[in-house]
Design a protein that fits this description.
heterodimer; A: 750 residues; Aldehyde Oxidoreductase, domain 4; seven-stranded mixed sheet; 26 strands; 27% helix; B: 158 residues; alpha+beta; Ubiquitin-like (UB roll); 2 domains; globular; binds FE2/S2 (inorganic) cluster
Chain lengths: 750, 158
């Protein structure tokens, strides 16, 4: 095979060996958040609000404290009042979400926590904590929250991003706006204009492992936390802030993590476990039940989105107008900002207005979920684009090709795109046999595309060469889907030693430099670049040691295939093993650290093709064939790139067809179990076909873009467009459950 | 509080432990026996992460009270490998990248073993239905199904 940019002749990058942490995970040895047991450890239990919105009048813990086995009971009063200390508003929100002080803002909001010698005792004590509430009226959706005279969650909330600032408080935390060109002129140039309104419900990340934390506090104020988290440095910072101590007082060890998808980038249990441990003088374990996970963590926003788009007969989009309101849950911070930036970012559109609102309501505070904000916006925009293509009789891939962002396009959110691979993903779909596969009766085919920025941020890595020439690669990025394998593959490629000679590990907050969270699809990109940097420092060091050994100038020494070679062949090569064995005589241990703020991200694009079969009698939709094409930049570890692509798609299929938060009129969640909040199971699905596209990211040594998130952006529209293709009904409200499909069919018949 | 004395065989070893009557088999295995391979994803029988074999039947350990297993034989993921040699399912899950986070893996391995014990040559649809009680949020199931197909093939060839 020729060595090209697409195939540069790598030995390890792009291969499919067994992952470094696999054996522990198939034998049950891997230690996840809830698996740790410490001597004398207590079990904790959290007390949660049964009300969606209420003022806490009093909390009486005396009965609970007097119970057998109970060692500690804490409430909001056991934590510093950050508001009184002048902390940043975002820190105050984190603290108040961790444990309520004056008001509870959603059903499931923490009001107290207990620790006792057994689980049963802790549960009984939690029930014995007496909380007196004054119930307040609540708002559950953006419509209710934005209505005139709506009850306010935060009395001082003045909408940001509006000039002049409103005088009155509201539930709208902020407004975002992106504009270009002249909307009226753009719509004037259109031959067809379609305008639609869409709604989506909150959905949960649905990781199978509930949140878990163990804390062991010392009497000197220091504490060790073990937790299931996507970023133990972030956990340390948040926890220290809530506890009112310096981050250096906390050591955080990342347990193996049983899924997160963004939902484990925030804290819930950690500061509570530390405070309970301090009060009890013993280690404390806190683990959520599944219903607590649903009621009080995640989810992502419910939304209302309006889209108006116009196209000329040649398929060129002339104008787009997008209005969106995103639920933030109890505290400001919905992903509407990212939604506004991504909504039309796939396309080069001359005239547009994108307007968005971040709206608080009495539901759990939303947390990041895979490409946060983008999937709902894409559901709306890609559905409208599908309709426009039909109206002008154009192929759905061709209309996207006619408008696709390419290198040099001014992105709708500002900067010019560097090299990107959107067009390549569209072509990959068109070239695949699924694109022309025969459809049966009641079957339909849908296409949709999606964009996600991918993050960079800060990472650190340390590489040690062991005395026998093997290597240990240490990072601080919790490995959520196989990233230790990519780290080891890149290190093997750099050092020129076998993958099997490298052990990649995730270290605690005291053993490696700072790392931002595992999120934003950033680990293989940024932490990977830190690993590459550290390996290159090692190679510099090894060359210098060889030069010293041979008594030649440094530039006479090259590093090739894992060994130092003399440029003119005047010396027999020195392998990494030789150099490691001699390290004591050539300058001591061989080790290097690298830390960086990512040198540039690589935008991710995905295009997906979905075939469904809809039963017109029952309204049940079944996905019968699915293809996802995604630009990975470079697939360091193709097995786990495919895994991310397939996993994202299937979460999207669940979002499209089944998943939703259902609240009763009191604001109590009605379906907080996997029985009633039904995520896709194996028998719901076909195989998920993958086409990995590799358009290298110029900002990464191997061209990595990051692959974790964009796969969840297109599925809802792909499924909706396929349903429309099958039955000619346009679904605008997620999930597209059998009832709603039947309703749409009935309306069509009338 | 009086605790009940239970005698079982766990992964081939006679195992005794004390438990409260209301404790689940899952918590007894994890807290008393010290085997944390079976996981709690829901505690209500809906996710399969806690799957173990009790007298050769796949069982959600979270739905069984510990005293109910007195006299039973239990297999957990820790007992799948034979003196360090991986079961073909474990090997195929590794080679086929059938796990991402791995929290669901112990449950899938047990359910898949139960399937292959009964049906050495299942169709894709049979595998999908046999594993429908095991939730995986990371993989989309594709690579899990393929790994089970591959393990079945290898076991038939042996
Ligand atoms: S924990 Fe037993 S089925 Fe989920
Ligand atoms: S691998 Fe994470 S839930 Fe299955």
């Amino acid at each position: 095979m020729a060595i090209t940019e697409e195939n540069p002749g790598y030995k390890w990058v792009g291969t499919r060996p067994i992952r470094p942490d696999g054996l522990e995970k198939v034998t049950g040895k891997a230690q996840f958040g809830a698996d740790l047991m410490l001597p004398g450890m207590l079990f904790g239990k959290v007390v949660r609000s049964p009300h969606a919105h209420a003022r806490i009048i009093s909390i009486d813990t005396t009965a609970a404290e007097a119970m057998v086995g109970v060692k500690a009971v804490i409430t909001g009063g056991d934590f510093p009042d950050l508001a009184a200390n002048g902390a940043h508003p975002s820190e105050i929100d984190v603290a108040n979400n961790t444990i309520a002080r004056e008001k509870v803002l959603y059903e499931g909001h923490v009001v107290a926590a207990v620790a006792a010698t057994t689980r049963e005792q802790a549960e009984a004590a939690a029930e014995a904590v007496e909380v007196t509430y004054e119930i307040l009226s609540h708002v559950l959706t953006v419509d209710e929250a934005m209505a005139d005279g709506a009850p306010l969650l935060h009395e001082g909330m003045i909408t940001k991003g509006v000039d002049p600032a409103p005088e009155e408080a509201s539930n709208v935390a902020s407004k975002i706006l992106h504009e270009r060109g002249d909307l009226d002129q753009g719509f004037g140039e259109a031959d067809v204009v379609v305008e639609r309104e869409f709604t989506t419900k909150p959905v949960h990340q649905g990781y199978i492992e509930p949140h878990a934390a163990v804390a062991d506090a010392n009497s000197d104020g220091r504490a060790h936390i073990w937790c299931s988290s996507q970023g133990h440095f972030q956990m340390r910072a948040y926890s220290a802030s809530v506890l009112g101590i310096s981050p250096g007082m906390l050591k955080v060890t990342a347990a193996e993590i049983g899924g997160g998808f963004g939902g484990k980038t925030v804290i819930y249990l950690e500061p509570l476990a530390v405070r309970l441990s301090q009060r009890a003088g013993r280690p404390v374990k806190l683990v959520m039940d599944r219903d607590e996970v649903f009621r009080a963590t995640g989810p992502t926003s419910g939304t209302r989105i309006k889209v108006k788009m116009g196209v000329a007969k040649d398929g060129k989009i002339t104008a787009a107008e997008v209005w969106m309101a995103y639920e933030a849950g109890a505290y400001a911070g919905s992903p509407v900002g990212a939604a506004g930036m991504t909504a039309i970012a796939c396309y080069d559109i001359p005239n547009f207005v994108v307007e968005g609102y971040d709206v608080v309501c009495n539901k759990p505070r939303v947390a990041a979920y895979r490409a946060p904000g983008a999937p709902m916006a894409a559901f709306a925009v890609e559905s409208v684009l599908d309709e426009l293509a039909r109206d002008i009789g154009m192929d759905p891939i061709d209309i996207r090709l006619a408008n696709a962002a390419v290198e040099g396009t001014q992105a709708s959110y500002g900067p010019k795109f560097p090299r990107i691979g959107f067009v390549e993903t569209l072509e990959a779909i068109k070239d695949h046999p699924n694109y022309t596969a025969d459809l049966g009766p009641n079957q339909g085919r849908g296409i949709a595309a999606g964009f996600w920025f991918n993050a960079g941020m800060m990472s650190s890595a340390t590489v040690h060469i062991n005395e026998n020439g093997t290597a240990t690669v240490v990072t601080g990025s919790p490995d959520i889907g196989g990233s230790r394998q990519s780290m080891a593959l890149m290190a093997a490629e750099e050092l020129g030693i076998p993958y099997e000679s490298i052990k990649a590990v995730v270290a605690d907050t005291e053993t490696v430099g700072f790392n931002d969270v595992t999120g934003g699809s950033r680990v293989t990109l940024a932490t990977g670049a830190a690993v590459v940097d550290a390996c290159r420092l090692i190679i510099e060091d090894l060359r210098a040691r060889a030069a010293k050994t041979w008594d030649v100038e440094l530039d006479q020494v090259e590093w090739v295939d894992g060994q130092a070679q003399h440029a003119e062949g005047a010396q027999p090569p020195l392998s990494l093993k030789d150099l490691a064995a001699k390290s004591g005589r050539t300058g001591g241990p061989i080790s290097a650290n690298a830390s960086l703020n990512s040198r540039g991200v690589g935008a991710g694009f995905s295009t997906q093709l979905c075939d469904v079969e809809v039963d017109p009698e029952t309204g049940v939709t079944r996905v019968v064939r699915y293809l996802t094409a995604q630009d990975a930049g470079r697939a360091i570890s193709p097995d786990y790139v495919e895994g991310q692509m397939q996993g994202g798609v299937v979460q999207g299929i669940g979002w499209a067809l089944n998943e939703e938060y259902i609240h009763d009129s009191d604001g109590v969640m009605e379906n907080p179990s996997f029985l009633d909040y039904r995520i896709p199971v194996a028998s719901d699905l076909p195989m998920i076909d993958c086409a990995i596209v590799e358009v290298p990211n110029p900002a990464h040594p191997y061209g990595v873009r990051g692959v974790g998130e964009v796969g969840i952006v297109p599925p809802m529209a792909a499924v909706g467009n396929a349903i429309n293709d099958a039955l000619d009904v346009r679904m605008t409200d997620l999930p597209m459950s059998p009832v709603k499909v039947l309703e749409a069919l009935n309306e069509q018949r009338d | 509080m009086a605790r009940t004395h239970i005698t079982t065989v766990v992964n081939g070893d006679e195992t005794e432990f004390l438990t409260e009557d209301s404790t689940s088999l899952l918590n007894a295995l994890r807290d008393e026996v010290g085997l944390t391979g079976a996981k709690e994803g829901c505690g209500t029988g809906d996710c399969g992460a806690c799957s173990v074999m009790v007298d050769d039947k796949v069982t959600c350990a979270c739905l069984v009270f510990a005293p109910e297993v007195d006299g039973s034989t239990i297999l957990t993921v820790e007992g799948l490998a034979d003196s360090g040699e991986l079961h073909p399912l474990q090997q195929c899950f590794l080679e086929g990248a059938a796990l991402q986070c791995g929290i669901c893996t112990p449950g899938f391995l047990i359910s898949a073993k139960a399937l292959l014990d009964k049906n050495p040559d299942p169709t894709e649809t049979e595998i999908r239905y046999a594993l429908a009680g095991n939730l995986c949020r990371c993989t989309g199931y594709d690579k899990i199904i393929r790994a089970v197909q591959e393990a079945a093939r290898e076991m038939r060839d042996q």
